Amino acid sequence: MKPWKPALAQGVGLFFCISLFYSCATSKPPTPPAPVTVSSRETPLLRLHYVGLGRLDRAVGVQGTVTVENPLPEALRVQKGEI
Asked: Does a structural domain hold residue 19?
């Protein structure tokens, strides 16, 4: 058996390295989910029926009724806030 020539050994090594580099395929990043489109009939609705202003001790309060309609299947959270 004859010893390999250095140029042939380098060529085989280079071919092996290049083939390993090209055999590793990079995966494409996942596509983002499509945005959810909501029609006007599917949006939550908040109504305020204003009655008037009232004086409470040293503050002024608003009197009225608030109606919330939620046609969505998810729960809607409504909180009373302070200004």
From this structure: no
